[in-house]
């Protein structure tokens, strides 16, 4: 609780900022609970996560008790990631996280379910924007991180539905006469 300096908090980690329409709503609660369960997976990938919801800090604090209960954790467990207060949707509007088709009771557009991935150089690497009515697949977000981290290290690209350990492709930009040098363990050539 208190102010957060985003770059300082991120340090040398990757970051995921994910937004929510509002506190105490059922879909959001399932998502935040899922993120709680996936914390060891995010840690393995050197990723810090931070949520945002357009309610107050005191509302977030009360909501965290619900989320822990839904996730099957005891109430004395420390909630493992911060949730940003965005009561007036200033951040959501600034960062393009608003779903203009979903309105709250007062007719104000809801914050959508955005996922922004930031790398350790503080570079914005990927965005996903789901409508408020569609909960996210956080396993897909881990898969995305695996692809981003792998393709940062090696001159490869990952195909449809790839997951860590599956085959990937040599980048089309790698000259053919460099392939053996860059991939000394060899590559498979498929003829279609
Ligand atoms: C929910 O989290 O359950 C929700 C929030 C806004 C619109 C629809 C569903």
TrEMBL record:
Domain Thioredoxin: 1-150
CDD domains per UniProt: PRX_1cys (cd03016)
Active site (UniProt): 28
Keyword field: Antioxidant, Oxidoreductase, Peroxidase, Redox-active center
Record field: catalytic activity: a hydroperoxide + [protein]-dithiol = [protein]-disulfide + an alcohol + H2O
Any Pfam family hit: 1-cysPrx_C
GO BP terms: cell redox homeostasis
Keyword flag Iron: no
Cellular component annotations (GO), alphabetically ordered: cytosol; mitochondrion
Biological role: Thiol-specific peroxidase that catalyzes the reduction of hydrogen peroxide and organic hydroperoxides to water and alcohols, respectively. Plays a role in cell protection against oxidative stress by detoxifying peroxides.
Record-stated family: Belongs to the peroxiredoxin family. Prx6 subfamily.
The name this protein goes by in its record: 1-Cys peroxiredoxin
Organism for this UniProt entry: Bicyclus anynana
Origin organism lineage: Eukaryota, Metazoa, Ecdysozoa, Arthropoda, Hexapoda
